Structures are given as structure tokens and as C-alpha cells.
Amino acid sequence: MAARAERMAFMALASGWFTAFADRDLPDFVPAVNTHCPLVGTNPDFIYGAASIDGAGQYLLTGERGGGLFLLMDIAAGGLGVLEPLGPSLATIDFDTLALDENGCFSLLLSAERPEHWAGDWHRLDASALSLSLRQASYDWGAHREARIAIERIDIPHAPRRWDEVEIARRLDALAAYPGRLAGMALGFIAGQRRKALWNRFEHDDWAGRGGVEGQHYYQGLFRLEPGKVLLLETELPEQVLYWNVQLNDMLWTTVDWMNRQSSLNGGQAAIDADGRFRAVIALDDPGISNWLDPGGNAEGAIMLRWTGASSGPEPRLTLLDRESLAECLPLGTLRVDAQTREAQLRARRRAAQMRRRW
After folding, report:
1. Long-range contacts of 100-105 (CB under 8 A, 24+ apart)
2. What is the domain range of residue 28?
3. 304: domain CATH number?
């Protein structure tokens, strides 16, 4: 565990570098988490971006919405940036509510007051705002054009700066402390799950105002496998749902490698049984079921399932079973795969993950 904790610390340093020298006058959406920095429960289906801003400024965002399921931006009074305190969400913008042209392009102004000359989309910027966080979701990785977004501050002249020695030292000190801060957040989350004894069961949380998607149902818990056992995950599906997924994380709240392992499944990847229910099997070794969730060798870890834009939030359940009795607990017609098919699935998954914009 010590080596894994050290690895987490170096990942946090790598992630923190993207924001350690952020300039609120010259903002840029940077990827704080991705396949190589899968910290604090990174969602495998999301592409994230973060930009530091000044709540007193005026910011123009231009670009293309892209072909994903949704593109959302959270305005917050602080986030996961190295120089930012954690702060509450102030507003969420759904880019599907903006005026998009025939090419899916948009123009959005953020400011304290709407300028008289501005005729396009506008959103009020709270004076306490410090960060913008983007997330775009996709079922079919790499098959769609990702969103492209530029951000610029327009209420002051364009003036690149040269940091002085004192400011560089201040930012490097903050970066050096960042792994401890991020580890505290991750381990604190897992510790909270432990205190609630959420082994092989779920609790509901909406993560409202704490970085979650507004109106989303989150079910989170811990899984524990025993020798010769597997876990059967079962849930009904909402009648209507924009997006859903389930993912596995380790006990450091780092998402299990989703590029090389099937450690997550979404509504486009999962096989649904004839009775309309979703079932998946968490097992250390491939059980030959299409909906295998691979924990990456972790007998213990964290699990999260989310329903987004859903007409309801069905509660999933986990059942610990003897591996030998798994077949009799699954319905007839459960999609099964052989070793050759699994190899093809995993290779296709790996290619698709690399086709996404991660940097």
C-alpha cells in the first residue's frame, strides 16, 4: 500500500502542475484528471477541463459543443486547482441551452452584468467565482468529435506576464503541498464510506453543490470480494435516462485502469437482460460474462453508479455469491463471452479510449 500511496502522490503532482501556474487573466481549460491521472474517482466516460477565473472579470467562451451526450460547466467558488480552496458550486451551465449555429458553435459571455451591446448568450458571474469546470460525456468513446472551447478575459488588455522569483516560489510551495491536500480529500471520502460500513451495499448521494451534476442520482459504496466469491450487481433502469454508468475505484479513490481493463460500463457499453434489468459481475478473474467489472486485482475498493437526466433513480444492489453458483443466479440469455471475444473487446476498448481528447 505504501508504494501505491507514493504513486498517488506523484500523480497528484503531475495533475497539479496543470493549475499551479494558472493565470486568471489568461485562462485556459486544462485536463486535471485523465487516464494517466485517474484521481478522486475520475469518471471514465467524462473528459474534464478546468480554468481559473476572477469573479470580477468578463470572460468570453467560444467554440463547438461537440457530439457527446452532454457538455456541462460548473462555476464554483474554488475547486481542485492548486491555488484554489475548495468552494461551493455557484451555477451550472448546460451548453444545450445555448444558441448553437448550424455547426454547433456557440459564444457565451460571463460577467457580473450584461453589457448593453451584447446580444448573444450571457450568464451572470458571481464575484466569489474562482473556477470553471467542464465535463463532457460519451457512451461511444472516440466516435464523436469532442467539444472545442477557447476562453479569454476581455475586460482588460491582453498582457502576458513574467512571474517573479517570489511568485514562482509561492506557487511551487503550493504545488508541493498539493498531494497531501488531494490525498486528504480522497482518503477522507473512503474513510467516510468505511465509517458507514458500506461494504457490498450502496448509499444515495446527489453531491449537490460539491462538484456533482445537478439533478443526478449517485449510488456509492464499497465492495469486498472473498476467496471463491463474486459480486452480482443488479438494478432496474429508469424509463428515461440521458446517461448512466458504473465504475470501480481502489481504496485510494483512484479509478481502476479503464483503458486496459473493463473496470466500468456505461449505458452504451452494457448488455441489458431480456427482463430489462442491468446485471454485472465483479470478479477478480473473468467469469465469462459480457458485463464483467474488472477490479484490477483489488479485492476491496469503491463503487459508484450514477443516473443523469433520469426519470427516476433506481437503487442498485450487490449480492456476494459463490462463484460456482453464479450461473444459476443469472437469467437465461445472459450474454456470455469466450476468451477470444474478450480479447477483441478489450483491444477495441483500448483503441477507443486513446481516440478521446485527454490532454
Report:
1. 100/65, 103/64, 104/64, 104/65, 104/66, 104/67, 105/62, 105/63, 105/64, 105/65
2. 2-153
3. 2.60.120.1600
Same domain, 231 and 341: yes
Query: Is residue 165 a contact partner of residue 99, using CB atoms and an 8 Å limit?
Result: no
Cell, residue 43: 469518471
pLDDT tens, position by position, 292-338 = 999 999 999 999 999 999 999 999 999 999 999 999 999 999 999 99
Residue 144 and residue 8 share a domain: yes
Tell me how far the alpha carbon of residue 176 is from its chain's centroid: 24
Residues 145, 34 share a domain: yes
- Among residues 275, 356, 276, 265, the alpha carbon closest in space to that of 304 is found at 265
Helix H or strand E encompassing 92: strand 89-94
Q: What is the pLDDT of residues 149-171, one digit of tens each?
A: 999 999 999 999 999 999 999 99
Both 19 and 100 in a single domain?
A: yes
Strand ranges across the sheet with 278-282:
292-293, 278-282, 229-235, 317-322
C-alpha cell at 24: 486568471
DSSP label of 79: -
Q: Terminus-to-terminus CA distance in the chain, angstroms?
A: 29
Specify the number of domains making up the chain.
Answer: 2
Neighbours of 161 (CB within 10 A): 9
